[in-house]
User: Fold this.
Amino acid sequence: MKFNLAQVLTFGLLAWTGAAQAVDCAAVRERFQCDASTKYPLHLSFDDGPALQTTDVLNVLKQEKIPATFFVIAYKVDCPAIEKQCQSEHPNDAAKACVQPVRECEQRKQILQQAKQAGHVIGSHSYEHLRYSEVEQGLMNEHFRLARQVLNPYLTTNPPLFRLPYGDGWFNREQKPQVLQALKANGFQHIAWQFSAFDWDEKNQQGDKILANVLEQVCTRKQGGVVLFHDGVHDQMHQGRLFTTTHLKEWIPSLRCVVDFKLLSFFEKGYTQHR
Ligand SMILES: [Zn+2]
Assistant:
């Protein structure tokens, strides 16, 4: 990849100052060797929430008028289950210890409701964040059933959509067909992704590496698709994927140099959306 120092500095400065500053799209396209005459369709998707900072993502999407999809972990909004778990872990001081976890769960439910009301697609990322091809069939079925039951007030499509944690059961669907079969039996349609921001990886959580990951993939492959980001962290209940939720706003102007944001239905058929 060829770009000169001035372009690097310009791009870095623009990325840093964010949306308030106009982006030099020619420099962005040159840096990633993007076709100047094409805008690729792109749909943003966010996994592992809801989290407290999902609110920040919703604000950016609203401001920028971008439609998105959220694949949420059902356990994070299963407040009775969270309370029960907390009580079992705090047999002597449950009344005190479990106030905050339950309050935070209620807050996540509100945030998820906001995402739905904003018109975004809400899908399931299962009940817990497991590699379901390695999970015993009974537990897998139970988690898919629970995901459907707990997320029922929030799911926005018919049939409801589902994205497997780690893509496990999707990438290896030839070897492990039981996962997609179980999803289908529970009435879900699976949605994969074409690009990954790799925003979960700490080594990318600096500068504009996450933005660069997305633009490199889009411009190298010369095609659009669904891109995977994370608003939540699968093994943290409440705090989100902070680097993404903090910096998403700054990446949008550069993304717009190369992509047009589209609805999920631009790429994925076979379902209808409702609110
Ligand atoms: Zn995930």
